[in-house]
Amino acid sequence: MTSALPSSAALPTTPAADQRIAELRTEIDACDAEIIRLVQRRLSVSAEIGQLRRASGGTRLSLSREQQVLARFQDALGPDGATLGLMLLRHGRGRL
Q1: Distance between CA 74 and CA 79 in Å, rounded?
Q2: Which of 24, 30, 65, 81 could share a disulfide with 73, CB 3.0–4.6 Å?
Q3: Exposure class string for 55-94: b at 16+ Cβ within 10 A, else e
């Protein structure tokens, strides 16, 4: 028989560790708020580009540009970066 290891939630922490965790979580919350603000800004810029492209008789999207965006995200963040980039592109232009 094997004994179960205690979960990390059951492990005791020190008051100093608890304080640092709280500080770091506050920092994560600030990062999340900034990411949300930047995504909203990106969506706004993307919408304006789409309007200008349509008004000038262009296509709704540029596949070469999308490939550049995906490559930049993948280069910076790995395979999950490409997934994140695709999510941003879909939000900006809608599903194809």
Answers
A1: 6
A2: 81
A3: eeeeeebeeeeeeebbeebbeeeeeebbebbeebbeebbe
Residue 84 in tokens = 């994140």
Mean pLDDT of the chain: 89
Average pLDDT over residues 10-37: 94
Asked if 85 contacts 76 with a C-beta cutoff of 8 angstroms, the reply is: no
What is the secondary structure of 12-33 as a DSSP string? ---HHHHHHHHHHHHHHHHHHH
Q: What is the pLDDT of residues 31-63, one digit of tens each?
A: 999 999 999 999 999 989 988 988 999 887 889
